Structures are given as C-alpha cells and as structure tokens.
Amino acid sequence: MPSPDQVSVTAGALLGLLNERSMTGWELVEEAWSRVGNFWTIQRSQAYRELAQLERRGFAEALPAEGRGRRRYRITDSGRQAYLDWLERSPGEENVRVPFLLTVAFADDVPEERFHELLDDQRRRHEDRLTRYEAWREELASDTSDRGRGRLATLALGIHYERAALAWLDELPSYLAGTRDAPGRDAEH
C-alpha cells in the first residue's frame, strides 16, 4: 500500500495520461484500454473514484462542465510531481489473471464437448485480439515520438502474449489427453 504522500498504481497511470492532455473520466478509461488493455484494466467507476481522490489531494482539477455535464480533468503541478515520483517507484509484482486457466485446472469436471467449445472460444478471442493488436501496430508504426515508441513497446508485449496463448491453446489437448479416465480417479467421475 502506498504511503500517504504516494499514489496508487491506478492513480499514477491516470496522472500519466492527464500529463499528456486534459481528459474526461470516460476518455481516460478508453485511452488506458487502447494502450494496455488486457494487461492493466480500469473500470469506469474506479476511474471516477480515483479522479475524485486525485482532486481532493490537489493532484488534478476538474475544469468547468461541458455539454451533458461532462467534466474534463487536468493535472496540477503537485499532481505532476506525484506522477514523476510514482514513475520512480518499483512497479511491484505482476498479477496475471487468466480465468480460462481455472477451467483448465478443473477440466476433468467439465464435459468433454463443452470443454472443446470453451477451448475454441478462447482460441477465437486470442486470434481476434492478435489481429486487432497487429492492426494497431501498423497504425502506430509511423509515430516515432517517445510516447509512440512506448506505445509500440507495450503493444509488442500484447502481440507476443497473444501468440504464446495461441501456441499454448494448441498444445493444451495433448496435456489433457487421457486424464479423464486416469487411474486413481473417483468412481463417481
């Protein structure tokens, strides 16, 4: 947990985005998703809670309301310093969550036909994401700014991850072959 003068990972990331330009909470979530989508997510409600906290702490300020009551936020000087301090800290341990891995862990309890449907669904999702990431890479290829290079580097991890996930999904049936009737299983299965 950050000390009272530090910001959380989510707040630091939001400050980093606000350091680039003023944005609404909606725009912040969309921008975060476009940059690090599946590796770091933020819910809209979380973004708005963090923005309110950042405003209370004097790290961000709300600009006058626009149409439909939308509010843009901008970073303050103290927010910029909090952001720079956040960048200096160690990011900490990774926390990768793969919900399908839980299904795999209990694969023996999933009817075989259903398991293959789930496997096909996972393959489709990763193929779609890989296609989307590769298209984004083409769009970003001409951006040679510091931020553009950072976005490309982040996107490269996404591309490598999706390729690795697809390779693992292709190998998965061989890991599970023959386990459904393996010796030592309960007679009830």
Automatic annotation (TrEMBL):
Please name the InterPro entries in this protein's record.
Answer: Tscrpt_reg_PadR_C (IPR018309), Tscrpt_reg_PadR_N (IPR005149), WH-like_DNA-bd_sf (IPR036388), WH_DNA-bd_sf (IPR036390)
Q: Where is the Transcription regulator PadR C-terminal domain positioned along the sequence?
A: 96-172
Every Transcription regulator PadR N-terminal domain range: 14-82
Could you tell me the superkingdom of the organism this chain comes from?
Bacteria
Tell me the protein's name: PadR family transcriptional regulator
